[in-house]
């Protein structure tokens, strides 16, 4: 049996328990075999990963066939009903029904165009002069759709449900991307839903779990961003002291190795003095010179800092990290690269390097642009940027993945998920706007799940009710990339 054929229970799985492994669905009903359905209501935790709780249609009696063997039951996955349960709960909910009432036209004025907030889209975009919609090559209808969406998001007087409609090939995807870019720039907290996760992946390739894993590495107290920032600052401020500390530790380590070697060879009286001298020379040769120590330490720290900067700029919510800090981090990457090229490209004596860092201010005041002065100036600017970032920006103190996940959901301006999984966002901070892509491919009852999230005032539906889903669902054909 392949590993992919092994069933791993998930909450709300409907399974068939049988006394034999069925090769097809018809085997479940072949006498004398029997089966009965069960529902997985709980799965194991870290301490008990192989334990799960089920509800069955009848009690399970364990009968012994022999003294040493017990009857074995096999579980066959049938279907997962998580979405069905969420739909059931949404249909029976009695709270947060404002948008549902707009959809059902409970209010006789619900379908009328409201003009309480005239020209609000223009006022909203005036605060972002660097964002030019005309540069995006939108046609008139696409531009009107974007501006209307912005106007809707800024209105606090009335709930509304809007529709952006267009047949295939008319640029709905481009309109969505532009609209979400504007809403992100405006810091409008927006939830974007789709019928399935496949559609969501087409819109946004970075999953939350992947984002959490990368941020957990950056938030780690002993190896993450804060540690790298402090270590690089200390190295550029006073590398000479760090090198002397390294020499002391290396001396102690070599003495301990030498003492251990002598203790292990007390009975070897024939060992020659020449071999001892050669071993001593080999041991002392392992101690790095100042330039080697500086290059090695700088290279290791710079590599880790580059990894952290790339992940922080990519995965931190834009509401948490400012554009100024991102700009400073990019500048820091350039300076780190320049320092590496300068220190590796030019040959400096150990004494010259020590004097260079000890008297960086004197070197800076010189008028000649020598290799030494360029290196010193680059190091000083790099140190200045490091201190600025440390003073203006700090990562959270926690690094548990559950807390990072909550942090991302609370701080993010744009969140993408399927309509069904939006049921998990009831406890998240409220959203201002709901966008549903291809709602015609949703069951009407399933769209009630995101429409009932707390405090959402407006919903925008984007799609074409005549667009048909894929008719070929064969897994065999999928393997041939059809």
UniProtKB/TrEMBL annotation:
Residues 255-284 are annotated as: Disordered. Residues 137-475 form the DNA2/NAM7 helicase helicase domain. Transmembrane segments: none annotated. This is Uncharacterized protein. It comes from Aquilegia coerulea (Rocky mountain columbine). Residues 3-95 form the DUF6469 domain. Residues 255-264 have a biased composition (Basic and acidic residues). One of its GO terms (molecular function) is helicase activity. It comes from the Eukaryota. PANTHER family: DNA2/NAM7 HELICASE FAMILY, P-LOOP CONTAINING NUCLEOSIDE TRIPHOSPHATE HYDROLASES SUPERFAMILY PROTEIN.
């Amino acid at each position: 049996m392949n590993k992919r054929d092994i069933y791993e229970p998930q909450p709300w799985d409907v399974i068939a328990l049988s006394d034999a492994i069925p090769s097809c669905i018809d085997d479940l009903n072949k006498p004398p075999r029997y089966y009965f359905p069960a529902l997985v209501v709980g799965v194991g935790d870290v301490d008990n990963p192989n334990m799960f709780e089920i509800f069955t249609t009848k009690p399970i009696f364990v009968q012994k066939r022999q003294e040493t063997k017990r009857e074995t039951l096999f579980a066959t996955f049938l279907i997962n009903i998580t979405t069905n349960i969420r739909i059931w709960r949404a249909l029976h909910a009695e709270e947060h029904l404002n948008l549902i009432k707009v959809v059902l036209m409970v209010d006789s004025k619900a379908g009328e165009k409201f003009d309480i907030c005239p020209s609000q889209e223009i006022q909203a975009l005036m605060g972002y002069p660097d964002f030019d919609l005309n540069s995006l090559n939108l046609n008139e209808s696409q531009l009107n759709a974007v501006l209307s969406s912005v106007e809707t998001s800024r209105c606090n007087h009335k709930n509304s449900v809007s529709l952006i409609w267009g047949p295939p090939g008319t640029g709905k995807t481009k309109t969505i991307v532009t609209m979400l870019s504007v809403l992100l720039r405006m810091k409008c907290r927006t939830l974007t839903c789709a019928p399935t996760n496949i559609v969501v992946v087409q819109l946004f390739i970075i999953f939350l779990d992947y984002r959490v894993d990368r941020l957990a590495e950056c938030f780690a107290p002993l190896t993450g961003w804060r540690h790298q920032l402090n270590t690089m600052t200390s190295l550029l401020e006073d590398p000479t002291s760090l090198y002397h500390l390294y020499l002391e530790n290396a001396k102690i380590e070599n003495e301990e190795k030498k003492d251990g070697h002598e203790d292990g060879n007390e009975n070897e009286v024939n060992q020659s003095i020449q071999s001892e001298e050669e071993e001593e020379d080999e041991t002392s040769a392992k101690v790095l010179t100042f330039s080697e120590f500086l290059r090695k330490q700088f290279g290791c720290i710079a590599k880790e800092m580059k990894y952290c900067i790339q992940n922080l700029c990519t995965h931190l919510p834009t509401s948490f990290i400012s554009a100024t800090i991102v700009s400073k981090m990019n500048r820091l990457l350039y300076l780190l690269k320049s320092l590496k090229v300068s220190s590796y490209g030019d040959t400096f004596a150990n004494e010259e390097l020590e004097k260079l860092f000890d008297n960086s201010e004197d070197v800076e005041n010189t008028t000649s642009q020598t290799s030494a002065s360029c290196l010193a100036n680059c190091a000083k600017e790099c140190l200045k940027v490091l201190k600025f970032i440390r003073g203006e920006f700090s990562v959270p103190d926690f690094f548990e993945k559950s807390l990072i996940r909550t942090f991302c959901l609370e701080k993010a301006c744009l969140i993408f998920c399927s309509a069904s999984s939006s049921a998990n966002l009831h406890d998240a901070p409220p959203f201002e706007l709901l966008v549903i892509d291809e709602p015609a491919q949703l069951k009407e009852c399933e769209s009630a799940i995101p429409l009932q999230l707390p405090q959402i005032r407006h919903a925008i539906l984007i799609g074409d009710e005549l667009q048909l889903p894929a008719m070929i669902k064969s897994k065999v054909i999928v393997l041939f990339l059809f």
